[in-house]
C-alpha cells in the first residue's frame, strides 16, 4: 500500500516475480520524487479483472475484451474501462491520458501522466492473450 509523503508516494519495491525487494538488508522502497509507485498501481489496475479485488472493483478488466472485434467502439470501451479503473479512488480525472492504436493485429494501449509513458498494454485477439508492462 502506498503512503503519500511530501512530493509523492512511497511504496514497497517489488521484484519481477512478485517478491519484496531487499536492498542492503532492508526492504527497498520507491523514491517519493519519482512516479514508480503510481506506475506500479496503474499496471496493477490494468492487469486486474473487474472483480479481482473482491469488494473493490478497481480492475480495468481488459481480458474481457479479448474476443471483441477491433473497432472504434472497442477503442472507446477500453478507454472508458481504463479511465474508470484509474479514477476509482486513485487518480483524479484529467491527470492522465489513455491512447490506443491498432498495430499488426494487436491493440496497443498507452497510459501517460505528465506526458510520460507510465504503462502499456497489448491485446492480441488472434492468440487470446494480453500483456501489461
How does this model look, in words?
Helices cover 21% and strands 29% of the residues. The strands form three sheets. A four-stranded antiparallel sheet has the order 5-6-7-8, covered by helices on one side. Strand 7 and strand 8 (129-132) form a beta hairpin. It has 133 residues and is an alpha+beta fold. The protein has helices at residues 36-47, 72-87, and strands spanning 3-5, 8-10, 22-23, 26-27, 97-103, 106-113, 116-124, 129-132. The chain has two helices and eight strands.
Feature tags:
133 residues, alpha+beta, two-stranded antiparallel ribbon, 2 helices
Question: Average pLDDT across residues?
Answer: 79
Task: Give the helix/strand class.
Answer: alpha+beta
Strand order in space, largest sheet: 5-6-7-8
Ends distance: 20 Å
How large is the radius of gyration?
16 Å
The low-confidence runs, each spanning 5 or more residues with pLDDT under 50, are 1-7
Give the biggest sheet: 4 strands, antiparallel
Number of helices: 2
Number of strands: 8
Q: Could you give the order of the helices and strands?
A: EEEEHHEEEE
Shape: globular
Binned strand content: 25-35%
Question: Portion of residues in helices?
Answer: 10-25%
